[in-house]
Amino acid sequence: MEKRFVALLRGINVGGQKKIKMADLKAILEASGLQNVSTYIQSGNVVFECEEQEKSKIEQLIFTTIQKHYGFEVPTLVLKATEIDSIIKNNPFKGKAEDNNLYFVLPKQEPDSDLTVEFNLLNFEHEDFLVSDNCVYLLCKKGYGKAKLNNNLIEKKLKVEATTRNLKTMQKLLEMV
C-alpha cells in the first residue's frame, strides 16, 4: 500500500493568477489531514502522505480545501510514485532530444479514443507528440514557451482537464515521493 503521493495543481502562481504561497498551502493541506507535506517550486507540486488510497477522493479533498481557503478552483491531479516512474520510463523521446525540451501533459482522465485518433492527425512545426492513456508526451524543439501545442490546446482537443510538467520537475517529484 502506497502512502506517498504527488498532487499537481494546475494554473497557480502563473502570470499573477491564483496566487498561493507554498508555506500556506503546506499548512492548509496538513490541517486537512495530509501528512508530511512538502512542495517543490512555486507552480503547485505537492508531495504528501495519506491513509486514503482512492486518488479521486484525495483530489477532491485538496480541491475543496483550496477552494474553501482561497475562494478559487484549482484543478488537481494526484499520482503515485509508480505512475510517475512509468510515465518517465515510457517517454518516447528519450535520447532523441535535449531534456529541457521534453514535457509531459498529464490528463485527469483518459482521452476518448476517437478524439485521440483525430488529435494524432495534427501537425505542428518543431513539435512532436505522442498520446498515451495517461500522458501526452511533448517534444518542443523551440521550447514550450513558443509551442503551438500547449496544455490549453490539448485540453480543448481531447476534452480533458490536464496539467503540464517538464522532465526536470517530473524527475524531482519522483525522487521526492
Structural notes for this entry:
The chain is of the alpha+beta class. The chain is 34% helix and 24% strand. The protein has six helices and eight strands, in the order E-H-E-E-H-E-H-E-H-E-E-H-E-H. It has a four-stranded antiparallel sheet with strand order 2-3-1-4, sandwiched between helices. A four-stranded antiparallel sheet has the order 6-7-5-8. A hairpin with a 4-residue loop joins strand 6 (127-131) and strand 7 (136-140). Helix 3 (81-89) packs antiparallel against helix 6 (167-176). 31% of the residues are buried.
Helix-strand blueprint:
Blueprint: E1 4-9, H1 22-31, E2 35-40, E3 45-49, H2 55-70, E4 76-80, H3 81-89, E5 102-107, H4 113-119, E6 127-131, E7 136-140, H5 151-158, E8 162-166, H6 167-176
Helix pairs in contact: 3-6
| Secondary-structure element string | EHEEHEHEHEEHEH
Helix content: 25-40%
Number of strands: 8
Measure the end-to-end span: 14 Å
| Main sheet makeup | 4 strands, antiparallel
Summary, kept brief:
The protein is of the alpha+beta class and 177 residues long. Helices cover 34% and strands 24% of the residues.
Descriptors:
4-stranded antiparallel sheet; 8 strands; 177 residues; alpha+beta; globular; single chain; 24% strand
